[in-house]
Design brief:
Layout (H helix, E strand, L loop, with lengths): L6 E3 L4 H9 L5 E3 L7 H5 L2 H7 L4 E8 L2 E8 H12 L9 E4 L1 H4 L26 E6 L4 E5 L6 E8 L2 E6 L9 E2 L3 E2 L20 E5 L4 E4 L4 E6 L3 E8 L2 H9 L7 H14 L5 H8 L8
Parallel strand pairs: 1-2
Antiparallel strand pairs: 2-13, 3-4, 5-6, 6-15, 7-14, 8-13, 8-15, 9-12, 9-14, 10-11
Helix pairs in contact: 3-4, 6-7, 7-8
The protein binds 2-oxoglutaric acid (AKG) and fe (ii) ion.
Length: 289
């Protein structure tokens, strides 16, 4: 088998993407692909404070295997981030996984030429499926794979995130708990406890403002923010990954996730119109588990 790696390219057409990465399930980093977006040039704490100070946002803390959630106005949250980066105030929670373009549709205008042709036509209203992240430097999302076994296109708008990636096959060596989380810390692996874990397989890739990272279905990822970061992703299925997500019923996927995967499969097979599909699917965007 080829060594596990992440290709780094300067540009990619939709057909190259599908042929070389989506279909064979290989990760790729597209450098500078969205550098020219207004979002990449403007979004940050100052921008959000100025335009949407009263927007309520949920924030999360990842603490010893538990996720603790609260909500606050975006303006106050941005103040906390700025204070923390100045060396004042405590470590802020992480505004993690929110369907931003539903809450703030104006933002769509700042995403110039979104590459929606990288995804199946079912995602032509791509903005409905995006999840947003805003957080302080040194935020960590622990090792996991995405809960529906979707593919993930990750758009880095501001700051740098350090991703550590592992292939799905390695999940059995990483101290899995629940459906999709792992106890192993790939930045400081406990090689006595996880003796089967092959640390040389982990690939570290810095995703900078203006880059797009593609992680195929089932990729294990640990993510560290190196600065205050703004990002969003789109979790999407093609028929192959949707089938995989449906068959995961035999591997312990939660029934709710199975249900969302089944809906995606019907949609991709053109057996559900978008309006009906989205009515049933939209609960997923605030569920993500
Ligand atoms: O950016 C992060 O901290 C986490 C990203 C992530 O896990 C995802 O996009 O699926
Ligand atoms: Fe993820």
């Amino acid at each position: 088998m080829d060594k596990y790696k992440v290709d780094i390219v300067d540009s990619l057409t939709a057909s190259e993407f599908k042929r070389n990465y989506l279909k064979p399930g290989r990760p790729v980093l597209i450098k500078g692909a969205i550098k020219h977006w207004q979002a990449t040039q403007g979004w940050g704490t100052r921008y959000f404070k100025q335009h949407f100070p009263d927007q309520q946002v949920p924030v999360k803390r990842f603490e010893k295997g538990n996720i603790i959630k609260e909500a606050m106005p975006l303006g106050d949250y941005c103040d906390q981030l700025d204070a923390y980066e100045r060396g004042e105030g405590e470590f802020p929670a992480y505004c993690h996984d929110i369907p931003i373009f539903h809450a703030l549709p104006e933002l769509k205008q700042e995403i110039n030429d979104f590459p929606s042709n990288f995804m199946p036509i079912a995602y032509s209203n791509w903005w409905k499926y995006c999840q947003f992240f805003l957080g302080p430097s040194q935020s960590v999302t622990p090792l996991h794979f995405d809960c529906l076994l979707t593919h993930n296109l990750f758009f880095q708008i501001k700051g740098t995130k350090r991703f550590t990636l592992l292939p799905y096959e390695d999940s059995r060596h990483c101290g899995r708990y629940g459906w999709r989380w792992f106890k192993l810390d790939p930045e400081q692996p406990d090689l006595q406890q996880y003796a089967q874990y092959d640390k040389d397989k982990a690939v570290v890739v810095d995703v900078e403002a203006g880059d797009i990272l593609f992680m195929p279905s089932g990729t294990l990822h640990h993510v560290r923010s190196m600065d205050t970061c703004v990002s969003f992703n789109i979790d999407f299925h093609n028929q192959h990954s949707a089938w995989r997500g449906v068959k995961a019923l035999y591997e312990g996927i939660p029934v709710t996730n199975f249900y969302y995967n089944f809906l995606c499969l019907l949609r991709l097979m053109k057996l559900l119109p978008e309006r009906v599909f989205f009515r049933l699917y939209k609960g997923y965007l605030n569920y993500v588990s």
